[in-house]
Design goal:
By secondary structure, the chain is of the alpha+beta class. It folds into three domains: 70 residues, Integrase, N-terminal zinc-binding domain (Arc Repressor Mutant, subunit A); 82 residues, Alpha-Beta Plaits (2-Layer Sandwich); 70 residues, Alpha-Beta Plaits (2-Layer Sandwich). The protein is 43% helix and 24% strand. The chain contains eight helices and eight strands. The strands form two sheets. It has a four-stranded antiparallel sheet. The protein starts with 5 loop residues before the first helix and ends in a 5-residue tail after the last strand.
């Protein structure tokens, strides 16, 4: 089974304060705008937009916020021009991070990411410095409901799933990125509630951190969560 620690972080995000949820909505709004500008506003014809819509609903983003973000993108109501930029960083304690951002100012964002890692005992790396430690995969998280692991395994085998694991009350399925959209729809058709469906950088191996040093990693992750330009981050730390 593949390891997967990011779902724990996702659940943690949902329990944050109203101010922090507002930041999450801002990030998702940017993703919606980018998805619309790239593939149009029709969800049926835009797999990327469909995936962002899943994320918006999983984070309880109000429908009016979703609609406003899409309308602004269609009508160019949002004058900001966002660019996708990925950073690779060496984290503290021998860890590795891949940071995905949407920014309207690359110099500002690069400076902020560098500052976060410098403060927490890490460094910003160059392109390719840690990417080889990860594999690009489609990752779908669904509510387990009353399904047993055997139930899920038998259904997943017919849906292009290459690996999976159970984590508390969810199943996490791994598959080739090109199959993400069709497999997500297939899970929905069977009756699963989709909590997350996106392309992720999944680490080939995980690093275990001494529990006495968890605070360093927690501080770093909190600062990444708080940065409005950071959309996603992937790391190789067990349990985070």
């Amino acid at each position: 089974m593949s390891g997967h620690s990011k779902w724990a972080t996702t659940k943690h995000k949902k329990a944050k304060t109203d101010a922090q949820r507002s930041k999450i909505f801002t990030k998702i709004g940017r993703e919606l705008a980018i998805a619309v500008k790239i593939g149009g506003a029709e969800v049926e014809n835009n797999p990327r937009l469909a995936m962002v819509m899943v994320k918006a609903r999983a984070n309880n983003m109000p429908n009016e916020n979703i609609s406003r973000s899409i309308k602004n993108a269609v009508g160019a109501g949002d004058k900001n021009s966002y660019e996708e930029v990925t950073y690779e960083c060496y984290g503290p304690l021998g860890t590795a991070f891949i940071i995905s951002t949407l920014t309207d100012n690359k110099n500002r964002t690069a400076g902020e990411i560098r500052h976060i890692f410098d403060k927490c005992g890490g460094t910003m790396g160059t392109s390719g410095c840690v990417a080889y430690m990860f594999e690009r995969k489609g990752v779908i998280v669904v509510e387990a409901g009353n399904k047993t692991e055997d139930d899920f395994m038998m259904e997943a085998l017919d849906l292009n799933v290459t690996d999976y694991k159970k984590d508390d009350d969810v199943f996490i399925a791994y598959l080739e990125p090109n199959n993400l959209s069709i497999t997500t729809k297939a899970f929905e058709k069977i009756g699963y509630k989709i909590l997350s469906s996106q392309i992720e950088m999944v680490p080939n191996t995980y690093i275990e951190i001494d529990e006495n040093k968890d605070e360093t990693i927690e501080r770093l992750i909190e600062q990444l969560d708080d940065n409005e330009d950071v959309q996603e981050y992937f790391h190789n730390i067990e349990g985070f």
